[in-house]
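Let's do one together. I've listed all components of the complex below, 573 residues spread over two lines.
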Amino acid sequence: MSKYLLEIKNVSKFFAGLTAIDSLNLKVKKGQIYGIIGPNGAGKTTLFNCITGIYTPEKGEILWNGKDIKGVAPHKIAELGILRTFQTIRLFSEMSVAENIMSGRHIKSKQKWYNGIIHTPAYYKDEKYNWEKTGEYMELFGLSDYATTPTGDLSYGIQRKIEMARALAAEPKLLILDEPAAGLNENETQELAEIIRKIQAMETTVMMIEHNMDMVMNLCEYMTVINFGAWIYDGVAADVQNNPAVIEAYIGAEDED
Amino acid sequence: MMSRTNIIALIFLIIMGLYPLFADSAWLAIGTTFLVFSVVAFSQDIILGRAGAFHMGHAAFFGMGAYTTAILNVNFGWTILATWAPAVLIPVIVSFIVISPIIHLRGDYLLVATIGINIIFLQILENDLFGLTGGPNGIFGIDVLKVFGYEFFEQTHMYYMSFILLGITLFIMKNLDSSKFGRAMFYVNKDDVAAQSMGINIRYYKMYAFAIGAGIAGAAGSMFAVQYSAVSPEAFDVLQSIMFFTIVLVGGSASLPGVIIGTFVMFVLPEIFREFETARYLIFGLAMIIMMILRPRGIWPVKFGNIPSFLKKGKK
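Okay, and this is what the predicted structure of the assembly comes out as:
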């Protein structure tokens, strides 16, 4: 068993000759809230896409509990316990909030292939249990009132919560959040920070990309700063804030948020 | 307390159940075919409306069921009852073989590939493969269903057999929609990237939809062959596939009442207006265009939110 939950070792990803990620290294410990920061276009989302199997990096290793998961299909990555949210919200928009969160229960559901045609006592037990779990996650995120509402009809802030509840319903070991505070107002951001703390308390490791520096500095125990796909610095919040290389990377990028 | 949809479903089943008492033989035949086509439309809807795969070759699976029954009965002397299982299983197996290499294709690409499958199927039928399919004329003289020496030869028998098949199909659809499998198809349909990130194997669930769809279409094909006691290639050409595709979109994708309405509008209405000859198709074509503009989600669109009642609380 590896000391680290997730290890990125010398990972590089190229797009038509363009280097999106450049021999990146980082190590995430179990139970951490780990921040990935850097200016826009630095390759942060590309990194997340490599971890979750959407992209396969050309070089390096992605170690999950010490085992290389590079090139493993996205649905298998999810089965391993790595779940994510998206920078641009991706919900099943015509479907209700409950049905969306139920998708998180997919990998936990033990229904057999023939249960899509005929139901058995084991099916009823499994179905009921997973809907109850869905109910619990709706409760946790304060979404119970919207159970039957199509997600497309709800506000941006609530949609962000649904996306997180959906990922969390799969009981992930690692939750990857891609700019969770984007588009949220101050109150909602505050609420989000509390939710992320709660998630950590549920013994779920969190990795997040975020531009809201107050939130990152407040939440993340450790962070890696990247620019142009390459490592610039990693350390605890206070060190990162005072590092000259980091400050330089952010000059001119400051006014974007 | 029954929901509005359940009441409408019950009224529909009662009307369809009593229909043979009022219909003459020509209308009974139309009624029987309506039931068979509804079953095929439902099976198309599993693939198109649920899994979201643009499948434009469904008449091939329908035809495979029909020809399996015809060939086994006429050429090999099997009883109709004995042909039922192979009429379901052969389309399922063929769907695995021909669809799995193209299942990753998206939207329009899959549509073209499935049209190709339908065309190849038709060529096989017309060229009398292994001397089994009877060429362009098809196969005649298919038996009626015989169980324990009793012959189900009357139109009314055919009608009620199709009615039972529709009942079984609706039962399967209901079970599918309330299972992990039906939901996974919807997730893949609505956002495949999000679906795979939730651990859903896109390939598996699309293939699952095709396999069930092909099996149900095969059962309907077997029924169709016995009803007309003959099969011929033109009943399973691409135009027929287009009709099943259109039924789903006009009626309402993934909507049970929608598909029934779609089948009625696309198949029964033209029969009602038969006296207007080909002019009816002019009106019909125009109506299809206007429908897609005004009601792009179908006449009776699907409503999501079928969740257990214990989760429905809070804001009324």
